[in-house]
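Here is an idea for our session: we take a single protein and study its fold together. Once you have written the record down, we can walk along the chain together.
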Amino acid sequence: MLAFCIFFFLSIVSSKYAVMQYGQNYFVYELGTCYYYTNKYINLYEEDKQIRTKSGTTCKEMEDDPSFNALFAIYELRDDIPEFSAVQYLWDLNEKCELSDKDGHPQEFLYAAGCNKDISGKFYIQYVYDEDKNTVSINKYSDEKCTVAEGEVITKTKGECLKETAGYVTYSDNSVKVFVILALAVMFIF
């Protein structure tokens, strides 16, 4: 068990991420992980402090693909991911929110924790995960402290495949981060 915790901790600590801020939220890709991106699988890696990409029809059969380099040039290389309260997984046009390659992952869009100005700048927004109901609520407010509600609360069931403007999506919470903290706690106990 201790060996697993140490291995898990080292794999998390040594991870690098490509992060792009979008308003107060973030697009995030873990380097070395295979993602589904517009009818292709891509894998990002670092070379000379730059983000480079490989692509292919599966995660196992990839070749260098410089056509993505300009897109990911605006991403920042980081050793950690920003604080977040919910994540939206982007499945493009996959109606069942499943990928043909079991090693592939959907794109990840992290919703920042706390009360944040919406990308439009017209209101503030807060994403709240309700563990009892297994839902992610999207709450709009007119003030920067998120105390004066504006409009109805939009609620998404965790893991449910939904059709939205961006294509098919699922929502989740930040439980992976909580798992990492628990794994660290277990490691230090033993």
About this structure: The mean pLDDT is 86. Residues 17 and 30 are 4 Å apart (CA to CA).
